[in-house]
Amino acid sequence: MWAYFTDPVLRAPTIGCMLMCLAAALMGVIAFLRKQSLLGESLSHSTYPGVIIGALFAAVLPSVTPESELALSVGIMAGAFVTALLGLYLIHFLERKVKVPSDSALCFILSAFFGIGLTLASRVQFSHTQLYKQTLVYLYGQAATMTDIHILIYGTMSLLLIAFIVLTYKELQTVTLDRNYATTLGLPVHLIDTLVFFAIVLAVVVGIRSVGVVLMSAMLIAPAVAARQYTHHLFKMFVLAALFGLASGFFGNVLSVELGQWLERHYPDTRLSLPTGPMIVLVAAAICVFSLLFAPERGLIVRLFRMSRFRHQCVSENLLKAMWRFGPDAVLPLHQIIQYQSGSDWYLRFVLRQLARQGWIERFKDGSYCLTPKGFQKAARTVRLHRLWEVYLADYLGVGAERVHRSAEEMEHIITPELEAKLTILLNDPTHDPHQQPIPPAEETHG
User: Fold this and answer.
1) Do residues 344 and 407 share a domain?
2) Residue 294 included in any domain
């Protein structure tokens, strides 16, 4: 893997793409938190007319030839930057002056500027064929043809964005998360917004050379979405998004080269290739999807697992509570226990066997069950929490006694010992619930 940073051919695409992804990921965090995800899509398409105009302007200079890589790159990026800013200005004009809805303004500028760019490109295709081929690189992305000059350009732009975030971090945090509070503090909200938009435009301009106009918005949003799944802190989100962006740029290059070589060896007649730009986006998308599914707190699969485990806990405690009603020494057949709990017979049998393995109940050879002393104590505590909550709703909040049962059925499974102690003090340790059922005393439920 070290060859990707030292090999003369691989070095520039790898480092250039990593810098691009870093810049895009950092500014994508701000765009994502401001709920302006579509802004990156509109701005990236707005750069295409500037790409054509910048290339033409650079070409008319007497000292510039189609082989002048640095001059052409600077001219193209300058043109892209200008038209992206123009697109941003028109978006705000449509939203604030003409009162066009935000999504409509974004889509209009996206399609209008991209259409203008394609029209200009169709003319340049015949008048400046060599330049046209170079501008196509910015439409679809072509990281493989980067040189060390691009590392210098993208490195400078990335450092400018990092410096902007570091120097204005507190102001960015306040304005992004609470604009009204920032206004009351006297912060220059309009100026910060302007700087943020300039920075987002710069990040877009940095990225179009690697992944192209069409795919650029993905690199703005995917790392930010992935980072959001792991943290609630802005600084950590910046760091994680930057790491995910760097990983996308690096592994996108690696997969493009390695898988491309593998396909060439095994399928020489198919002429399959894996462009670097789309591979970078696919890696970023894979990181994003993995985070959405498996992040420790917010991941969908993890949340479904926690929900399933909680439902299982509720069923277990409900079965213990059902057996508690018959007394500590009651031996109950299966059908008499499961009639108090909804669910399939096989699942309820599984739960009862699990409770037996955990020592809460005892299972006899004839298939009947009884509570162990530990299980009776646990069931009594569940009943106590249920009835304490009913007393709290009826006596403290004034809810009718006929309406408290359902809420108590839910709360009995999540009341902590600390909350139980506070309820006991608040309600003066009641002995009966609103239905005049006895509440198990605390000493019986805690041993």
Assistant:
1) no
2) no
Dump pLDDT digits (tens) for 240-294.
Answer: 999 999 999 999 989 988 888 888 787 777 777 788 888 888 999 999 999 999 9
- pLDDT for residue 443 is more than 80: no
Rounded to 5°, angle at Cα 228 from 31 and 203? 35
Which range of residues forms the domain containing residue 403?
375-445
Same domain membership, residue 397 and residue 354: no
The reported pTM is 0.81
Is 45 in the same domain as 186? yes
Of 254, 264, 334, the C-alpha closest to 14 is 254
Q: Which of 371, 390, 413 is the last residue of a domain?
A: 371
Looking up residue 382, the CATH number of its domain turns out to be 1.10.10.10
Q: 410 and 367, same structural domain?
A: no
Q: Quick one: 25 and 173 in the same domain?
A: yes
Structural domain contains residue 101: yes
Q: What's the whole-number average pLDDT of the chain? A: 87
Asked if residue 138 and residue 200 are part of one domain, the reply reads: yes
User: Last residue of a domain, which of 371, 397, 413?
Assistant: 371
Contact partners, residue 305, CB within 8 Å, separation at least 6: none
Question: 316: how many CB neighbours lie within 10 A of its CB?
Answer: 21
